[in-house]
Amino acid sequence: MSILLNGNIITPINNSVKEAMEPFEGKALNLKSLGKENQKALKAYKEAIDKIYRTIEAKDEDSIILTSSASEAASQVFMSMYLQYILTGRKNSVIISARASIAEIKLARFLESQGCRVYRIPATIDGTLDVELLKEYLNSKTALVSVPLVDEESGVIQPIEEISAACALQGVPLFCDASGAIGKIPVSVARDEVTFMSFDGSAIGAPKDIAALYIRKDAPEIMPLVFGCDSEQGGLRAEIKDIAKVIGFAKALESAIDALDFDIDDLRDLRDDLETELLKMDNVYSLAPWALRTPDRIIMAFGGVHASMLLERLAQKGVEAYSFATFDNRNFERQSLIDIANLDSGLKHTVVGFSLSLSNTKEEIEEAAKIIKETVSEIRENFSSDLCKESK
Amino acid sequence: MSILLNGNIITPINNSVKEAMEPFEGKALNLKSLGKENQKALKAYKEAIDKIYRTIEAKDEDSIILTSSASEAASQVFMSMYLQYILTGRKNSVIISARASIAEIKLARFLESQGCRVYRIPATIDGTLDVELLKEYLNSKTALVSVPLVDEESGVIQPIEEISAACALQGVPLFCDASGAIGKIPVSVARDEVTFMSFDGSAIGAPKDIAALYIRKDAPEIMPLVFGCDSEQGGLRAEIKDIAKVIGFAKALESAIDALDFDIDDLRDLRDDLETELLKMDNVYSLAPWALRTPDRIIMAFGGVHASMLLERLAQKGVEAYSFATFDNRNFERQSLIDIANLDSGLKHTVVGFSLSLSNTKEEIEEAAKIIKETVSEIRENFSSDLCKESK
Fold it and tell me: For A157-176, b where at least 16 C-beta lie within 10 A, e where not — what string?
């Protein structure tokens, strides 16, 4: 069995989620049918939707639609703003974070290709969005501000209340992907006052390929992205047919929120143990402030160690970590964590992350620490590259 | 257990598909990882994609991307044509069938709201698209023709080779949803010469919420609809994360194609037995020619019997049928089968369909025939409505 330290990217389905899904799995369910089994499924479906509302503290008058991913939710929000506000000349710009997700980066590029202005707001030295700079670019012609609640690479929690206050002042809608936040920190659309919020099931023990898009009652009009038979989705998205998946998603959200009350502290302790161990090595840098990171994350530069090689060797030894370093300097003009932390640029290719989840045991983490340290040393001994020299 | 006669809408997952999925289900798989289990998943994923290519006789140089539904595939094709050809003024119209799916109807309406011309080509008396009329509307400014391979309500097979020849003559791309055809009749993009084709897993014993979009090599440029991390999807759609689902989908397609060689004849016989039984009733009309229908389908008008009531009572007795009659005269300007067949318009609300699948047994079908006949009589006796009088 592998030691999974890429829980921010993907997690196995939780056992409690499997149990909740089991009565509905693999069946030919049709929510419009009045047959007994289908009526049972409809009841469970409605309870699941209610559960999703409660999870993020949404109001009954707000809308929540189910999508196949947070990327789909982002695409729907960006494209709606484009088609209804930018294309019609009512608005002319969008603002994203210079630390945006791949979906946001690609959507922003599409908008640019259509003549829309895109402003990319960098992070300050602590890894949080520069809100003062954001305010300078915000105006009545801004169609959308999009900032993830948690930085997907570093796990740094963004000042979303400040950002939403700045947006509200100009009447600009705010889209916030909370996929990295759900189950790690409290998430509340009531408190954060976002206009749109997405959250994906992939990283919380839910089945894959399901997510939700929250739409505040007074949000600008959203149009469908996936057109089709949409009676269960308020006219905004073709129906999701896999009822078991919807039920599993809601159960996973509930469990993730419940975990915030106690389990999450154990997770943070385990994470801290691993980080302390790894920082005992030379030429290793933690890239995000402890107090600002979600409790599952470690993000580090391993001087002289190419991230892709470290990932590969760790995977072969049964430890799954993650890295965005391979993206950064190719097609994706994303502000790098190394630049943010003001470190030597030679470290850019050495950034690797570890994201713990509730299923990780103390034994696993001790074993992982050993393997990571050993692998870093091994690579440093065998590959005394230019990269290595540069970063010394 | 219910008797499922709505296999065109949804089917349970086949046992062979479950078996194929099992080794990959519920796990945290990451196709980019070099870990052993992930590499095994990557191999199975690639085999699944190959299998999908072979299923529809696509060439290596063509593209196939995975989507969450055929509705998503249709949305991607329509929106790409809109954004790249209609919005730029290079094209100015689209042509759909007057028997289009809900997704196509809604997409067409969206295009109309943006100033695009939409032509809706009716079906002739046998239920097939009027190709001569199509030819009159086709011209060099047509952005897209969209015709499903099989009529979703009646099961009538459309003359797609003729349609594609007419489109090719004008250099117009043809989008064809083959979801109702796969596993019922041979489907080949080589023979049918379509530009785009979609096929959904919902009706072939696959897991739900997965479909594929075929894109011929020389097709007009398609853009992403769901933007995101798309390295496994040729840059055209955010990745599908549920690897088990992809493997199950490919297996279901393979099984559906294999069934064409022998099982499908038994299915046709069973279907014919049921139809013969039902036609023994008075005031019952078969609405599509036997020779043109896929072997799973029966579509009938039951004079004096409101479709929604029949569906409801059948479901309560454990028989799941389907009906589009409740849609037709409300929001959806779809040409009705009753008009096509030149029958009394009072029959419009009485149209119910039955779609058999390979899991249906002879005993089930005999039982279903009994229940349907009994329920039709019951409704006729108890509800001598205006509708009933009208249709006599």
Answer: bbbbeebbebbeeeebbbbb
